[in-house]
Amino acid sequence: xxxxxxxxxxxxxxxxxxxxxxxxxxxxxxxxxxxxxxxxxxxxxxxxxxxxxxxxxxxxxxxxxxxxxxxxxxxxxxxxxxxxxxxxxxxxxxxxxxxxxxxxxxxxxxxxxxxxxxxxxxxxxxxxxxxxxxxxxxxxxxxxxxxxxxxxxxxxxxxxxxxxxxxxxxxxxxxxxxxxxxxxxxxxxxxxxxxxxxxxxxxxxxxxxxxxxxxxxxxxxxxxxxxxxxxxxxxxxxxxxxxxxxxxxxxxxxxxxxxxxxxxxxxxxxxxxxxxxxxxxxxxxxxxxxxxxxxxxxxxxxxxxxxxxxxxxxxxxxxxxxxxxxxxxxxxxxxxxxxxxxxxxxxxxxxxxxxxxxxxxxxxxxxxxxxxxxxxxxxxxxxxxxxxxxxxxxxxxxxxxxxxxxxxxxxxxxx
Length: 415
Ligand code: USQ
What we know:
Blueprint: E1 2-6, H1 13-22, E2 26-31, H2 34-42, H3 53-64, E3 68-72, H4 78-88, E4 92-95, H5 102-106, H6 109-133, E5 138-144, E6 159-164, E7 167-172, H7 180-199, E8 202-208, E9 210-212, H8 238-248, E10 252-255, E11 261-266, H9 267-279, E12 287-292, E13 295-298, H10 299-312, E14 319-322, H11 340-343, H12 353-365, H13 388-397, H14 405-414
Parallel strand pairs: 1-2, 1-4, 2-3, 4-5, 5-8, 8-12, 9-11, 10-14
Antiparallel strand pairs: 6-7, 11-13
Helix pairs in contact: 1-9, 4-6, 6-7, 6-14, 8-10, 8-12, 10-12
């Protein structure tokens, strides 16, 4: 297949590009490098610095003899988006090209509006470009389990059969997301469903859980093929952060009671899930949802696992229950279905002692790079952000208040 990976410079995009290239697909990656810019703005960086995308593509070709085509483009620029689809003629598109962080979207007004403008506009442009230039192409869109929130009933895969006043229908599962970022994915889902219904496009919405892991078979081929692994409060996800904290000797940052439950999966399973969706496409006009995670844990369970394994390796690991910076239920029912990818053949890499050991070992090799000062949470869901970058933006913003928010955000999206 000819496959375009949008957001191909990111934590998941780059490993997906290599994985699919190695399996014989013709792969193109598209990125506007916005995440590298946000890292600079927030003064954070991945644990291991990552070379520029062209360099990684060159090394990939050198190591494997396989080409990956890289294009710099912004999905918020419609002519650019159309041109890419017209030139590359994809059979499938894997869409990771969005602002991926919940804390980033809750940091301040500007970043919140930016997240929704960027994510929703980019995806809507993509749908219009597909309609015009690639109407049979299969869109594999990365959504999130966070679209559903934590309802007091079982979570289905996208749709639920409801009986109301004696009548029945199958309707989109109710959404109760927990941040403006998660909301942006909800809005995307509605737009994609509508485009499939009205224009006969086809799409798989992968409602993915929290991903952990630092290495895949392809990143391990060469030190410069490493992926962008974050442990800061903005882009780092829970288990990745806990592993780095254990190595750094920083108490594990359990938010609140830590009883909040989420679906988790290994980065290797993300790649396999995307491949399974690609190899088993939906029909013309079909919009389907797969819940993409392999195991459910509470945050506290994860922290305890990391503590136990860390101590076996001789690390001194403590847990710290911080006042929860987020507004989220800490004690709740959570039972989400995740059958469809298993039925297609997914064999999960379950979280094991060995897996945590290997993450800790990999992080220990880079222990000198850890910056403890970027670990503690500063973004609060219900207060003004104490993040220095937001305070600076707020001071600067006073002189600019007349300029419309939308104008600002669209401008930022194009940098
Ligand atoms: N948490 C802690 N301590 C930390 C970090 C997080 O207790 O140091 C808790 C949070 O309060 C939350 C849970 O861990 O209850 C998950 O937080 P997270 O930061 O690992 O994940 P989240 O913000 O939900 O977002 C991440 C990715 C996002 C993806 C989502 C999948 O950044 O792109 O969509 O996971 S899901 O959570 O299923 O919606």
